[in-house]
Amino acid sequence: MAYPKSFEKCMEGFQKLPGVGLKSAERYAFTMLDCSLQEVQEFAEALLEMKQKIHPCVICGNLTEKEECEICQDSQRDSSTICVVQSARDILAMERTKEYHGVYHVLNGLISASKGILPEDLNLDSLLKRMDGSVREVILATNATVEGETTALYLDKLLSSKGVLVTRIAYGIPIGGHLDYADELTLIKAIEGRKKMD
Amino acid sequence: MAYPKSFEKCMEGFQKLPGVGLKSAERYAFTMLDCSLQEVQEFAEALLEMKQKIHPCVICGNLTEKEECEICQDSQRDSSTICVVQSARDILAMERTKEYHGVYHVLNGLISASKGILPEDLNLDSLLKRMDGSVREVILATNATVEGETTALYLDKLLSSKGVLVTRIAYGIPIGGHLDYADELTLIKAIEGRKKMD
Lengths: 198, 198
Known about the structure:
The structure is a homodimer of 198-residue chains. With 198 residues, chain A is an alpha/beta fold. Chain A is 42% helix and 13% strand. Chain A has 2 domains: 5-53, RecR Domain 1 (Helicase, Ruva Protein, domain 3, Orthogonal Bundle); 73-170 and 181-192, 3-Layer(aba) Sandwich (Dna Topoisomerase Vi A Subunit, Chain: A, domain 2), CATH 3.40.1360. The interface between A and B is large, with 55 and 55 residues.
């Protein structure tokens, strides 16, 4: 027996989601069948509305339904510090800490030789435009991967000439992490980055 | 920073899916944002179409877009053997084996004291209607859980008086399973159900 056609189409849609294979897609489709028609309608409309309404902030590239995002519009934020991240998802992660009060810049990717992503593919023009003298520090908060490092090195070179302090987030043992589970590179970085005890 | 409203609504929808929490819903919503408008439209339409078109087969309760499901309509299938399952999902699992050639009956649930599900809440009337003398065997293929067992016992009582052979699927060690990982009840059932080697 095959699935009914409309069921299969729905499963195909779910399989586009990251980490969702045939089995999960099947479970998800069954769950949707068990929901009321109203619930499914609301969900379908929410998907479309999100796709149609959300676009990148003209200043930093963060997600927003307006022209400028909530953070860029917030006069309480320290606009002299810009935290550069790979994607808007990283902003949400940073915001959850509630410790950072500067603004952001979303690159929309990382330089990658293997994926053929070049500096010109990133959201850099608007970052350079922001270097109008009002910015004191740029924190490079790309991932600690090869691509993240490459991008950070590139940005450091690009921005240093603009008379701005360029910093990189710290490497080390994650909180709760065990030394014997940490890889060698992380340990080396943790020792290199050691600080005097307060 | 909060998510844009339409993004949050979309996340809420995803969180209705089984096993999907805040983090996964966020990832899924971001994936949808990365898809083209056409892809999102197709997915939203597929959801609605599925919900509107699919309903239970009038005979067995399996999912179908027609009046009777593919299996009930198939004259090649042995309609004298009915395999009783909890949900339409179990039919798909059974069909994947390609070893069963009878027909099915979907209960749409299991008797459960804790969830307050009584025999009258199950799709039983139509099962009894099918006991018109043409059925030779009813295989009880409910889960090997308390609820599955309770339901199987109830069905055995109900159907035995109808002059039909009532059987239960076998319990034992799953293929690839290790004895030292099996629980005691499974081992007891596996020993009880032992067979002469061919």
